[in-house]
Amino acid sequence: MTQPDAEQCSVLSIGGEMIELLPERAAYWPARGTLIAADLHLGKCETLRAAGLPIPPGVVGRDLARLAVAVQRTGAARILVVGDLIHHGSGLSAGLVDLVRGFFRRELAHVSVHLVPGNHDRQLEFLAHEWGVFILGKELLEPPFGFAHDPGHGLVPGAAVTWFGHVHPLCRLGTRASAVSVPCFVIDRDHVLLPAFSQFTAGIAVPLAPTARAYAIAEGEVLAVPALRGGRGCMVSCLGDRPG
Prior knowledge:
This protein has helices at 44-50, 59-74, 94-107, 124-131; strands spanning 7-8, 11-14, 17-22, 26-29, 34-37, 78-81, 112-115, 134-135, 139-142, 145-148, 161-164, 170-173, 180-187, 191-193, 213-218, 221-225. It has 244 residues and is of the alpha/beta class. The model is unreliable at 228-244 (pLDDT under 50).
């Protein structure tokens, strides 16, 4: 079966607010001057190298460059990371720390970085001290939105729409024989799942809820993808599930 045609779409009304979905794997909330991203997993490459795996160089630099492009594109004054800014303490090598510190000071000199901690963020004092990150609570309420990392912990009380990371959602585009999996945003009536910002991450595809829609990121565009109900090409609302 052929996947239905995808429609280019990047500016949506979510919870009554205009939101721009960016091909850089982030969303922009103009009313608050806020770039919303999740799952940067900084230091993942270093963690895997420390375990003896041959990981090529340059992955972090490319992710940071993409973050700079998103900031420049939108003029954001704040970056709100919805969990997992880092991957593991073992990946916080001196080289990585210096690279990120220099990037924040050079490219984000006029941008504040705020973190709603995720399950990987266990070096909070270090992040605040070394990189100047503002550490928030496990949930953040900024009406009409709430922000929390893991959808398995439920919606943020008082929020019309809660933004989540953690899941790394993917959707499939193309024919059954030649489909490819790409990162996507998933938007439902009461929650949004953000794609993993890091390109060096795996993801999952799960059935799309009847009220949800997937917005795929492919070839530098954001595409609204009609659902194949009940098919393998469908993607996602997994509120209540606990992916690893």
